[in-house]
């Protein structure tokens, strides 16, 4: 790996991102693929840093653009397949059992989610590969519902190619300014996180109100029976 990469990377990167740099220094383009595979399993690994950095490295001639796109896409698919396997091993009944232990969530919610995924799973898997947080998580319900494996791999590959290509090309074109991609990606992720938090908050509030109404109706019914 070139000393230019070290000079560009070390001032900005620490922790997990710096580890990804070391991985690419040691293994080259396959190192980028391995980092992306692990990013699927451990979302704190920043693909929004790894991919542009890999693109920048390709622009320096350390490996080709085609190599980095191939290996990072392969890494995405391998990571997604691992999580699909987790979902498949959990299965429908184990998932329902786990959900029963979660406060404010009913098994009926699982059934509705499963029905939605069966109907819209193709779009969810494809588009989910291009949304922070959901990039990894979307593979689990695909495994739980036993989506056709060949279809899952095709959709995952297509979505990953788009996501990876955008960030790798950004790093390739921007060169030593590859790091400017990260704030934009962080902003996108922040929007997703806020949307998720609001959705969860709305769900919890609705469920709390529903449970209170249920308890009130039960109490009113008991009083009525007691007065008879």
UniProtKB/TrEMBL annotation:
Residues 45-172 form the VTT domain. Keywords: Cell membrane, Membrane, Transmembrane, Transmembrane helix. InterPro entries: DedA_domain, VTT_dom. Its main location: membrane. GO terms for cellular component: plasma membrane. The keyword Transmembrane helix applies. It is found in: Cell membrane. The chain crosses the membrane at residues 68-90, 149-175, 187-209. It holds the Pfam family VTT_dom. It is a multi-pass membrane protein. Belongs to the DedA family. This is DedA family protein.
């Amino acid at each position: 790996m070139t000393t230019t990469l070290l000079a560009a990377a070390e001032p900005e990167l620490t922790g997990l991102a710096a580890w990804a740099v070391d991985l690419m220094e040691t293994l080259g383009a396959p190192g980028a693929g391995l980092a992306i595979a692990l990013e699927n399993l451990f979302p704190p690994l920043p693909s929004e840093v790894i991919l542009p950095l890999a693109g920048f490295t390709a622009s320096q001639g350390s490996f080709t653009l085609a190599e980095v796109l191939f290996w990072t896409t392969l890494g995405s698919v391998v990571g997604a397949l691992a999580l699909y396997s987790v979902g498949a091993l959990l299965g429908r009944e184990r998932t329902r059992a786990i959900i029963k232990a979660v406060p404010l969530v009913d098994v009926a919610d699982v059934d509705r989610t499963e029905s939605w995924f069966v109907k819209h799973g193709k779009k969810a898997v494809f588009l989910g590969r291009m949304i922070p947080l959901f990039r990894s998580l979307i593979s689990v319900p695909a495994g739980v519902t036993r989506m056709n494996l060949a279809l899952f791999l095709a959709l995952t590959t297509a979505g990953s190619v788009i996501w990876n290509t955008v960030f790798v090309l950004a790093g390739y074109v921007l060169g030593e300014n590859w790091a400017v991609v990260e704030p934009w990606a962080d902003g996108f992720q922040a929007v997703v996180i806020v949307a998720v938090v609001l959705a969860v908050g709305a769900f919890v509030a609705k469920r709390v109100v529903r449970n209170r109404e249920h308890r009130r109706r039960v109490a009113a019914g008991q009083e009525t029976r007691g007065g008879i």
